[in-house]
Amino acid sequence: MLLVPRQLRRAGMTGDVPYYGGRFTPAQAYAAAHPRARPVEAPPPPRADQLAALQHLLDTGVITPEEHRRLRGRVAP
Predict the structure, then answer these.
(1) pLDDT at position 60
(2) Are 57 and 63 contacting, i.e. CB atoms less than 8 angstroms apart?
(3) Alpha carbon of 62 to those of 9, 10, 48, 51, 73: distances in Å?
(4) How far, in Å, CA of 28 to CA of 24, rounded?
(5) Mean pLDDT, to the nearest integer, of 30-59?
(6) Can you give the pLDDT at residue 61?
């Protein structure tokens, strides 16, 4: 029983190869060898409901004013 196709057992076919039979075009081979880094997205702006929830926690005494300042700094830079 043959578990690995002949194309994948070749010496040059090691690692993470997006190839199973067939042929690569030069553009596909270059793209596979040089993956592009994804751009880093900016975090979303603070939402009013998050700030309102923090204020509610402060008003009800669940968190201290020090915790409120620390958490507000994390929500709204």
Answers:
(1) 95
(2) yes
(3) 62, 64, 19, 15, 18
(4) 6
(5) 86
(6) 94
